[in-house]
Amino acid sequence: MRPSHLLIWLTLCLETFALNAAAPFELLYFYSAYKIEWTSLDSSGRTIATGCRHSPNNFPAGESAYAAAATAAGVKGICTFDEFVKYVGRTQSFIRYRYTAATITPDPATIKVKFQQTFGVYPALAYDPAKLLPTWASVRANTPLTPIIKQITNAVQTAREVVTDANALVATEVANSKSYLQIIQQLRLKDQMKFMGQAITGFLRQTSFTTLKYATDDINYPNGNKFDQYQRIDYDGTIATEPGATQNEKVALRTAIETYGTSTPQAPSELAQRVQVRGGYYRTSYLRLLDEEKKLAFRMRNEII
User: Fold this and answer.
1) Cβ 209 vs Cβ 240: under 8 Å
2) Tens digit of pLDDT for each residue in 9-43?
3) Burial readout 40-74 (b: 16 or more C-beta within 10 A, e: otherwise)
4) Distances from the Cα of 112 to the Cα of 227, 240, 287, angstroms
5) What is the distance between the alpha carbons of residues 279 and 111, in angstroms, rounded to a whole number?
6) Enclosing H/E stretch for 36
7) CA torsion sign, 33 to 38 to 41 to 44?
8) How far is CA 177 from the centre of its chain?
9) Whole-structure pTM value
């Protein structure tokens, strides 16, 4: 049995700040949703980055190719990916980002390299929620990332209701969206696994288990090409190390893994959940995961767009 880590990654993205490694894929996800809305709805029904404007001045050498591609895809006038990034990224975070390609079909491998070359090791990149979702009544300057992703997912579902998957652009971007969400989950989990491993190792001291086992998974681009890998806790491998473990201990271990970083229902306003271990606490430093976000995790795990 492999516990779901989607609940975990949602707890890791509760601020409107991007983990740098995940930032290009979060923006690719947002852009896919933006394109789905653009091709499915008229301007009065769109909700994502509605203030973004394409300018031929941004890409003098590539304007003709852009115009042909946008017209062929039925999204004439849409912002390129670079324009979208500059528009929804907070100015102080994305001031280094430059227009380099007049494309509406960004290649994730190319974008990943561009972000690495542009930002390197850089403070967390921040998005502007009000520009990303200007018509959303609940949007605030500090709106957390989890409800933003939920709102964008809802917007995509609304747009899809008026088209069929026979629409080539929609079908392609829905498939891309699924891949981008999985990549975001994997990269955030990779970034935090050292803290999770420490906390769960501490938890094991209260049980008959002695060794925490890990499994390695690949992180792939939408085309299936591997570009990274990460370790996740191997529940089955861990329980196999102690054949004499009780059923209660096995259930407790699974629960500890699946609920790591979440707050308890008795303390919904708690800012950080602490996992108690023998001799003290390991502080996870994650904000709470609310019931609504758990529902979103279930939806994304079972339906994903």
Assistant:
1) no
2) 444 444 444 567 888 999 999 999 999 999 999 99
3) bbeeeebbbbbebebeeebbeebeeebeebbeebe
4) 10, 38, 28
5) 45
6) helix 23-40
7) positive
8) 10
9) 0.78
